[in-house]
Amino acid sequence: MKLICPKCGSRFEMEQGVRELEQSETHDIAAKLGQHWRLVWEYSECFRQEEYGDVSLPKRLRILKSVARLFDTMIFPYRGKKYRTSWHEVIKAMTKICNLQKKEFTNNNYLYKMLIGTSDRLSAEGLSAVEEQKKENSRKYAVSSKQKKEPGQLNFKKLAADVRPDKSG
């Protein structure tokens, strides 16, 4: 399908426009990753299906986007659970994968398996177990201190124990 550029009037094909858009997105991700770009590119080469094959641009773009998302959030899903890791661990795991010269990957699960040992599992709220414990302790402390400080609160069990029947009757 041929299209006409609205600015210059030249004709181009739809596939050419899509390819240029994908290349532009790839360049944006490269700029975003900075010095780690080469490592991420080498990691994306692990998705080749043949020894001397190539990774198609749309597939490479999907891989690069998922790795860029991992670098942005440092959170990754694996088997329905979320984990948090650090830049250092991701770079170390990617380097190890690239040094092993693995290939024929279909997804990032191999990377995620390597990261799980050094990662913190997150709750549904996005907190690690340590952060959940701190939050729970601070909540308990806030409730107990609130009960001690409020003067209008009556402790009925204590009052009932202090009340003695009147024998003057």
Features:
three-stranded antiparallel beta sheet; 169 residues; 10% strand
Mean pLDDT: 81
Report the radius of gyration as a whole number of Å.
Answer: 29 Å
Give the low-confidence spans: none
- DSSP helix fraction: 55-70%
Topology as H/E string? EEHHHEEHHEHH
Q: Termini separation (Å)?
A: 106 Å
Instruction: Provide a count of the helices.
Output: 7
Counted beta strands: 5
Largest sheet: 3 strands, antiparallel
Overall tally of domains: 2
- Summing up helix and strand content along with how strands pair, one would put the structural category as mainly alpha
Strand order, biggest sheet? Answer: 3-4-5
What would you call the shape?
Answer: elongated
Share of residues in strands: 5-15%
Concise synopsis of the structure shown:
With 169 residues, the protein is mostly helical.
Describe the model.
The protein folds into two domains: 2-122, no CATH class; 128-161. It is built from seven helices and five strands; from the N terminus they run ββαααββααβαα. It has helices at residues 14-33, 37-44, 57-73, 87-100, 109-116, 129-149, 156-162; strands at 2-4, 11-13, 75-78, 81-84, 120-122. It has a three-stranded antiparallel sheet with strand order 3-4-5. α2 (37-44) packs across α4 (87-100). The protein is elongated, with a radius of gyration of 29 Å.
